[in-house]
Amino acid sequence: MNIIAKPINFLKEVKAELGKVAWSTREELKSSTIVVIVVTVILGIFIGILDTILAKLLSILFK
Q1: What is the Rg, in whole angstroms, of the alpha carbon atoms belonging to the chain?
Q2: pLDDT in tens, 6-61
Q3: Sorting pLDDT into bands at 50, 70 and 90, what band is 3?
């Protein structure tokens, strides 16, 4: 194989492999995105509350 044929062959193989991928439907993608956003917000709130509590405890402890 020469220097031109290798990249072309690689791209053909990539295209063939991408054809085998089981892509999510639009609805599955929307549902997954909503779950990720909700879990991220809940985790952020939890960490914020925990941080506030620990900061208050430490300020009381080291006063």
Answers
A1: 25
A2: 999 999 999 999 999 999 999 999 999 999 999 999 999 999 999 999 999 999 99
A3: confident
Distance CA 55, CA 44 (A): 16
How many residues are listed for the chain in this entry?
63
Question: Which residues are CB-neighbours of 9 under 8 A, at least 6 positions away?
Answer: 1
Contact 24, 32 (CB under 8 A): yes
- Other CB atoms within 10 Å distance of the CB of residue 17: 9
